[in-house]
Amino acid sequence: MKNNYFSKVGWAIGFIVLFLIGFFIARNSGSEQNTFKRTQILLGTVVEIQVRNKDEKKAEDAIAKALAEVKRIDDLFTTYNEESPIWKINKSNETLFKVDNEIFNLLVLCDSVTKLSDGCFDVSLDNLTKAWGFYTDNPHLAAKTAIDSALSFSGWNNIELKENETIIRRNQVGFNFGAIAKGYAVDKAIEVLKKSGITNALVNAGGEIKVIGSDWKVGIQHPRDERGIIAVIKLNNNTVATSGDYEQFFEQNGNRYHHIIDPKTGYPAKGMQSVTIINESNTFADALATAVFVMGKEKGMKLIEGLDNTEAMIINDEGKIFYSSGFEKFLTN
Q: Is this prediction's pTM over 0.85?
């Protein structure tokens, strides 16, 4: 039984890539303190935590607690573990569910981003994800009949959030939190580090990154060069998240089919290679990166410019780079 969001396909390659571009990160410019690092495969990716502190035991204890928190989030939101409440909901024939307060609160945020993006962000597309075979050993070009069928059993219009942490789910739509769970786990891990008295740290879950402290340098992966970075940014007590068509994909007849599905069509979204979002919340940034990817450059950038304390770097399908009005102030060498 799989126990994460992604299949084991490409893990060996992905692990190397993350060390080259996910761990391309990270140096804090004022590094008088020692740096302690640990990595673990969770949420179907490599999770790295760096802590700068003079006290090794304090740092290692904090990292262990933060990784345990990421594991807890993984277990809570995975769709592959029979013990997960999300797995149980997806497999149930019922329509009315009383859910955990934490799950409900994340669904409320998902609802907000879905409405904000005119439906371009949607965590109720698990049936479409399965139709395409993403996160399995066999992603494939789905037949139109299979896509149409999966569309009829997908979509946020089938979800109602009621009082007392109750939800209504119609047409047996399936939840999949792959577009927001990593960001949420990063935020929660940072909370644990702060509670442990850590004042200088970085958490990276497959490119969803949040820092405590100033002057952390973070590389953003080049969407067409798995060993390269396309930009380096400086983070000060904030976060960055990236969604790209290079994360889970296959190619057939010269076409690239990736895992970021347009909820309206049931097919992979077109027109983009990657979207990077800077925001104080990694949960929001993670979701917003997917939403903007689906929305496209024009609508996506308009959305970003209307949000406070939010910046974006968009790379379209021709490889051209576009920045929101305040993004370039984060760029560094």
A: yes
